[in-house]
Design brief:
alpha/beta, single chain, 7-stranded parallel β-sheet, 241 residues
């Protein structure tokens, strides 16, 4: 058993998820890392790590991963519901299958992640839910229609969860990044949308490192349990909207 509590992260194979895995591992936490790309998790070579090939749409697999990791390292003290996908595009031309994928991963995946740990946190009267949203969950952007909808969903359920869980001393934190240097553009198939996104990113001098976001997550987690940063909104300084 490790000295520090177990941290669970979905979508841990790249971007903010990977950076957060590294940050918490460096701080001495055992980690449960879940993603569809197991080889990427293995390449991290982190100590005290349980690696699981999990699609967050599979509620049973996600729960089983948590049970297995908890049998080795004790209860999950923070679940980072990070897994998500951005299929941006012109809503009139976008294949509905892309809507389905975003809705299933970005909303149902978040709910499945919470479901796997919430009752245990209530019973222990301790824990943190880190909910991956986006600045696109606070305002809408061209060609982000369904993506924005999924992130507004995360904001809404997080507010409800926070109200429900606060009497049990369980924290719910919403993470709302702007343009971060991740693989998010890899999922954009609409060429016009992709070109516009890249042009906007270039105009503001590029995104910021996922490591910066990970350190904020770690700092927010390390506050006393009676204190909560309810939402983290972080963007490049030159990102005005």
């Amino acid at each position: 058993m490790a000295d520090k509590p177990l941290i669970a992260i979905t979508g841990a194979s790249s971007g903010i998820g990977e950076a957060t895995a590294r940050a918490f591992s460096a701080a001495g936490h055992p980690v449960l890392l879940m993603a569809r790309r197991l080889d990427r998790l293995e390449a991290l070579r982190l100590p005290n790590a349980v690696l699981k090939q999990v699609d967050v749409r599979d509620r049973a697999a996600l729960t089983a991963a948590v049970v297995d990791a908890e049998s080795r390292f004790g209860p999950v003290d923070m679940m980072f519901a990070n897994a998500g996908i951005a299929r941006l595009g012109d809503i009139a031309k976008q294949p509905p299958e892309e809507w389905d994928e975003m809705i299933d991963i970005n909303t149902k995946g978040v709910m499945n992640s919470v479901h796997a740990v919430m009752n245990g946190m209530i019973a222990r009267r301790h824990g943190t839910l880190m909910m991956m949203s986006s600045i696109a969950g606070r305002k809408v952007y061209p060609d982000h229609t369904v993506y924005c909808g999924t992130k507004y969903f995360v904001h809404a359920v997080s507010e409800s969860f926070r109200e429900y869980l606060a009497p049990h001393d369980v924290r719910v934190i919403v993470l709302s990044p702007g343009i971060i240097d991740t693989e998010v553009l890899d999922h954009v198939k609409d060429e016009t949308t992709l070109a516009n996104y890249k042009a906007n990113k270039e105009a503001i001098g590029g995104g910021i490192s996922a490591d910066i976001v990970a350190e904020l997550i770690l700092n927010a987690y390390n506050l006393p349990q009676k204190a909560i940063v309810q939402e983290i909104v972080i963007t490049p300084t030159r990102q005005k909207y």
